[in-house]
Design a protein that fits this description.
The chain is α+β, with helices and mostly antiparallel strands and 324 residues long. It has ten helices and 13 strands. α1 (4-17) crosses α2 (19-25). The longest helix is centred in the last third of the chain and has 16 residues, at 259-274. It is globular. The chain has an eight-stranded mixed β-sheet. It has one domain: Glutamine Phosphoribosylpyrophosphate, subunit 1, domain 1. It has helices at 4-17, 19-25, 46-58, 63-76, 120-130, 138-147, 158-170, 237-242, 245-254, 259-274, and strands at residues 38-42, 97-102, 108-114, 135-137, 184-189, 195-201, 222-225, 229-235, 283-289, 294-298, 304-309, 315-318, 320-321. The structure holds N-hydroxy-L-asparagine. Residues 82, 181-183, 201, 203-204, 213-215, 234-237 line the site of N-hydroxy-L-asparagine.
């Protein structure tokens, strides 16, 4: 028979050996009620994107359809210079797009280094649903899109071209920079309690031609485990890929971490690895668990995300961050 004392002792021992147990026990936010539907997305353009996603969620639609619809808003907006149409080009003047999508059954699709297609998220979904593959890149991804009814368009707007030409004058052709972020990552839970996510970007501005970031990489910028939760990322993709950010966060949540603690732990891993030059990068993570609880954490203090649920009517929240 296990006595109370023995139970406390063995729990304490287990918590020492497995720190996640401690986290699990201290997760007071889970009251057993599930907040659903709910949609979250990165940055201020998450507001109109969430609005679109909410239409689907409110009508009882799938989270998968909601996230696909939602992220198409910044993809098609010429004034958003970091996603889809109007995105800033690579250092050779090409707008190249990275996107991925993941549903509640571990199905996923992705495109990377895709040119000339306004809504790469829809191509990613088609890769998921119509091919035996997960990821198509470059010319192959474009051919696949064209064969499936997508139209080729010039995505380099006059404003983006002007900025790129300005940059060319003084940059020494060297990519990178601290303010170099603004991907949309969107995660949602629908009325049935199922999760999905989408992530789409034109990537780091003035990057090397051919560079692919974290945004189309399942497990890096997006991961969904319908039994646990979903996570997405924004910021310098190289740092996110290095720690398999979104997958790490979902795994931590499956070990009992709250969404906030899981995002924080992932940022701390990046900081531990990076050490030098950490002030020059931004990475932000956003996570949602199966109960509709969510949290965010970033390296720098300018990361914001949009939340839409029945109680939080598409508000913008400031993320917690390592640097205040
Ligand atoms: C990338 N993560 O290509 C993207 C860039 C970005 O917000 O803007 N993220 O690395």
């Amino acid at each position: 028979m296990i006595t109370r004392r023995g139970f406390i002792k063995s729990s304490a021992l287990a918590a020492g050996l497995f720190p996640f147990l401690r986290k699990f026990n201290s997760d007071k936010t889970n009251t057993g009620n599930v907040t659903k539907p709910l949609v979250l997305s990165t940055w201020i353009f998450g507001i109109p994107a969430n609005k679109e996603a909410w239409r689907v969620l409110e009508a009882g639609g799938r989270a998968l359809d909601a996230v696909e619809a939602g992220v198409q808003i910044p993809e098609g907006d010429p004034n958003v210079s970091s996603v889809g149409y109007g995105g800033l080009p690579d250092r050779d003047g090409h707008v190249t797009l990275d996107s991925c999508i993941m549903d509640d059954g571990f199905n996923c699709g992705s495109v990377a280094f895709l040119e000339g297609i306004m809504h790469p998220i829809c191509v990613a979904r088609m890769v998921m649903e119509k091919t035996p593959h997960i990821m198509l890149v470059g010319e192959g991804a474009k051919q696949f899109a064209l064969q499936n009814g997508f139209r080729e368009e010039n995505l380099l707007t006059p404003q983006a071209e002007k900025k790129w030409k300005e940059w060319m004058k003084n940059s020494g052709y060297v990519p990178y920079g601290k303010d170099n972020h603004d991907t949309i990552g969107m995660i949602a839970i629908d009325k049935s309690g199922n999760l999905s996510g989408a992530c789409t970007t034109s990537g780091l501005k003035y990057k090397y031609h051919g560079r692919v970031g974290d945004s189309p990489i399942i497990g890096a910028a997006l991961y969904v485990n319908n039994d646990v939760g979903a996570a997405t990322a924004t910021g310098v993709g190289e740092e996110v890929i290095r720690i398999c950010g979104a997958h790490t966060i979902v795994e931590l949540m499956s070990n009992g971490y709250t969404p906030l603690d899981a995002c924080k732990a992932a940022v701390e891993r990046i900081i531990k690895i990076k050490k030098e030059n950490i002030k020059d990068i931004q990475v932000g993570f956003l996570a949602l668990n199966k109960h509709g609880e969510y949290g965010a954490y970033a390296v720098q203090n300018d990361f914001e995300y949009a939340v839409y649920s029945e109680t939080e009517n598409n508000i913008l929240k400031k993320s917690n961050s390592y640097f205040q």
